[in-house]
Here is the input.
Amino acid sequence: MARRLPSNLADLETTLGHTFADKTLIERALTHISFLPGTPAVGPHYQRLEFLGDRVLGLCVADLLCRTYPDATEGELSRRLAHLVRRETCLEVALEWNVEPHLRLGKAERQAGLGQKEALLADVCEAIIASVYLDAGFAASVELVEHFFGSKMAEPGRAKRDAKSELQEWALGRALPVPIYRETGRSGPDHAPVFEIAAIVEGFADTQGSGPSKRVAEQAAASAFLKLIRPEGQK
Here is the structure.
């Protein structure tokens, strides 16, 4: 049988605005595999709930966006959706919920600071959303998501496109080939590399970007290209 930690989930339920009829659901959402004997791949821990919660969150946010922005294009809705369901936003919500003290972790993992890991907190946020969905249905999960994610829709930058997406739209809008990205150099040690990437658009000078990963460097190169083609001060 799984070990149990004494915990009072009443304050978390108050924060969520939801009292669980089935307490095992929220307990499972807060349980890391290290808390269970034998660390089973499938068991009463958060991972399967996180899988479900990711899908429930996406549907709830899509529904919320369609109701809030009835005149928005599919492209704008997609960009807003991507920013609202991303890991960073789930982390923000998990911190608002003060999830960390309620996490059920193995002793060694807790001492190692696993409960403060951003990826785990973001995943547990999605698991909690799934636990509300299973406990009380879709309407309850919509209410939860609308309350904690809805306020973030209008925050500056939430609908902002990333540089690569914006550059691709710019090129396609002018009947140009899709931009390509080419690695032009790499420096630094293996554990901390710096990549140099060129953004290449037919008929224009290449622009360069650098970063600790190819993805970051590509975004930097695309951003440099956008700055090159825009008049000063234009967003």
About this structure: Residues 1-6 have pLDDT under 50 and may be disordered. The domain at 163-229 is CATH 3.30.160.20 (Double Stranded RNA Binding Domain).
